[in-house]
TrEMBL record:
Keyword Transcription in annotation: yes
Stored Pfam families: RNA_pol_L_2
DNA-directed RNA polymerase RBP11-like dimerisation domain sequence ranges: 20-90
Entry keyword set: DNA-directed RNA polymerase, Nucleus, Transcription
Name recorded for this polypeptide: DNA-directed RNA polymerases I and III subunit RPAC2
GO biological process, one term: transcription by RNA polymerase III
Gene Ontology terms: cellular component: RNA polymerase I complex; RNA polymerase III complex
Main subcellular location: nucleus
Length: 106
């Protein structure tokens, strides 16, 4: 786990629909955003995260699904978060550009 930012806890677990993913170097910002997006998937039964200890720089994200694999639910959540982040950045940059243009007119 030393070099990888994402590992699966107990990879030998038989059921692919129930997994705990450990993100190294992440905290509440990623955990809450991912949990919120993943829970919008109708196939997801449970999604929650914990920070095991404040001195540990780790995020544990647990996903349980009906049919799809937990890894697929995580992948979809990460893709949605990327898309949402891109949209927010684009909207922000457009607003800043518009603001600067208006300031130049004054």
């Amino acid at each position: 786990m030393e070099n990888r930012r994402l590992v699966v806890a107990r990879e030998d677990e038989q059921d692919d629909r129930m997994k705990t993913f450990i993100f190294k170097g992440e905290g509440h910002t990623l955990g809450n955003a991912l949990r919120t997006l993943i829970l919008k998937n109708p196939d997801v039964i449970f999604c929650g995260y914990t920070i095991p200890h404040p001195s540990e720089n780790k995020l544990h994200l647990r996903i349980e699904t009906k049919e799809m694999s937990a890894a697929d639910a995580l992948r979809e959540g990460l893709e949605q978060l990327q898309s949402l982040s891109d949209h927010v950045l684009e909207t922000f940059e457009t607003a800043v550009s518009d603001f600067k243009s208006k300031q130049m007119e004054v």
